[in-house]
């Protein structure tokens, strides 16, 4: 056994007691919900929860955006997120004065990208949803972002996302692994999405993963891959091309490797400046970025960043504009493999349409009485 494997094994042994304690606490909490000691509240509008068992990096945000795009032209849609690393507390609705510091980078990304979307944040969804419906009674569908562990709210559809490279069934509970709760918690999901799959994923490999997931009879398993969309200028929002250019990539995402590989295939040269996930840029960071760009000896050089990072860079909009350098935003989306997109859409739309129809029938039926 190599020295590295020995240290890894020793680390796992040392962390095992902490994982046992953490797992026991989470197990007890879930059992109390299952037994009805802790109650879950169901709200009238259709509620779809998107989340994961691990601590991050599964590609949750582009899947939420997929749902927004699917639903926004049919219904008045609202998102509710915790607002990770925001500088505020409690329930907030996004408005014209909103920035990433107030609501968090991912909600800000939704707010900037979808003008008709109602974007809200609240640490406690159980109290946030009534506030949302009080302020925006026309909301017809609520998307709960990163809420798989928020069992106080009973979602109509629970979407669980797991990373192809590290599926939940091969992971361990914190701190031994990255799972927030035990593997068996996948039972609560209605839909399981294996994300970040290679675009040419073999069907036999997918079937093997399905067998290891061992879905319950009511659960559907889908496979998605990352797809990079039309890049656009940070300042003008005009579409631009990456071809023939070289990039200083500025990113603060949990797993930047696929993005780096994509840019290396698309562009001449790529210099990477990677920061911690959800990192808020300070003056020192901006100077580092400016210096890296200035020292980057490459033809057609530009700064490239993701939409999530752009939401935080927007806090320094005026200063960045003074640099007079091209900054390109690269959107990240998802594509369903094996022609599963329509099937997933139907699962979501049937639930939403049926729930709204039942609510209307109850409302108008009670008026007639």
Features:
369 residues, alpha/beta, Rossmann fold, 9-stranded mixed β-sheet, 39% helix
Describe the protein in words.
There is one protein chain. The protein has 11 helices and 14 strands. It folds into 2 domains: 47-227 and 336-368, 3-Layer(aba) Sandwich (Rossmann fold), CATH 3.40.50; 232-330, AF0625-like (Rossmann fold), CATH 3.40.50. 39% of the residues lie in helices and 19% in strands. It has a 9-stranded mixed β-sheet with strand order 3-4-2-5-1-6-7-8-14, with helices on both faces. A 5-stranded mixed β-sheet has the order 9-13-12-10-11, with helices on both faces. It has helices spanning 3-34, 60-71, 100-103, 105-113, 125-135, 203-213, 257-266, 283-295, 307-313, 317-323, 341-368, and strands at residues 47-51, 77-81, 92-93, 118-121, 141-145, 157-163, 191-195, 220-228, 232-233, 246-251, 270-274, 301-306, 327-330, 332-336. Helix 7 (257-266) links the parallel strand 10 and strand 11. The mean pLDDT is 92. With 369 residues, the chain is α/β, with parallel strands linked by helices. Helix 4 (105-113) packs across helix 9 (307-313).
First-to-last CA distance = 76 Å
Largest sheet: 9 strands, mixed
Q: Fraction of residues in helices?
A: 25-40%
Structural class: alpha/beta
The run of helices and strands is HEHEEHHEHEEEHEEEHEHEHHEEH
CATH top level label of the largest domain = Alpha Beta
* Shape descriptor: globular
Number of E strands: 14
CA radius of gyration: 22 Å
Name given to the CATH architecture of the largest domain: 3-Layer(aba) Sandwich
Query: Largest beta sheet: what is the strand line-up?
Result: 3-4-2-5-1-6-7-8-14
Query: What is the typical, i.e. mean, pLDDT?
Result: 92
């Amino acid at each position: 056994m190599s020295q590295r494997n020995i240290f890894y094994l020793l680390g796992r042994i040392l962390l095992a007691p902490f994982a046992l304690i953490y797992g026991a606490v989470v197990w007890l909490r879930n059992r109390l919900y299952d037994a009805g000691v802790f109650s879950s509240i169901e709200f009238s509008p259709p509620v779809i929860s998107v989340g994961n068992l691990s601590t991050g990096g599964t590609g949750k945000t582009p899947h939420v955006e997929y749902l927004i795009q699917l639903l926004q032209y049919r219904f008045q849609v609202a998102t509710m997120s915790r607002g990770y690393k925001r500088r505020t507390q409690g329930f907030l609705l996004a408005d014209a004065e909103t920035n990433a510091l107030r609501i968090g980078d991912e909600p800000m990304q939704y707010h900037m990208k979808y003008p008709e979307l109602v974007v809200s944040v609240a640490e406690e969804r159980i109290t946030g949803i009534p506030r949302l419906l009080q302020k925006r009674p026309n909301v017809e569908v609520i998307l709960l972002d990163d809420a798989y562990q928020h069992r106080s709210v009973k979602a109509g559809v629970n979407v669980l996302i797991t990373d192809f490279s590290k599926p939940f069934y091969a992971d361990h509970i914190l701190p031994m692994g990255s799972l927030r709760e035990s593997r068996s918690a996948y039972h609560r999901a209605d839909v399981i999405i294996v994300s970040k799959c290679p675009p040419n994923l073999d069907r036999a490999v997918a079937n093997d993963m399905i067998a290891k997931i061992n879905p319950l009879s009511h659960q559907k398993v889908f496979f998605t891959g990352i797809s990079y969309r039309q890049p656009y200028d940070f300042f003008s929002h005009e579409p631009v091309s990456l071809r023939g250019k070289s990039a200083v990539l500025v990113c603060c995402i949990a797993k930047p490797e696929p993005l780096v590989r994509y840019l290396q295939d698309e562009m001449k040269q790529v210099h990477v400046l990677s920061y911690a996930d959800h990192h808020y840029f300070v003056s020192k960071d901006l100077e580092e970025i400016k210096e890296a760009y200035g020292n980057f000896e490459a033809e057609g050089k530009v700064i490239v960043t993701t939409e999530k990072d752009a939401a935080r860079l927007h806090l320094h909009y005026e200063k960045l504009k003074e640099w007079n350098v091209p900054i390109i935003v690269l959107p990240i989306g998802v594509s369903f493999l094996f022609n599963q997109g329509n099937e997933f859409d139907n699962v979501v739309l049937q639930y939403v349409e049926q729930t709204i129809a039942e609510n209307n029938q109850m409302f108008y039926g009670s008026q007639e009485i």
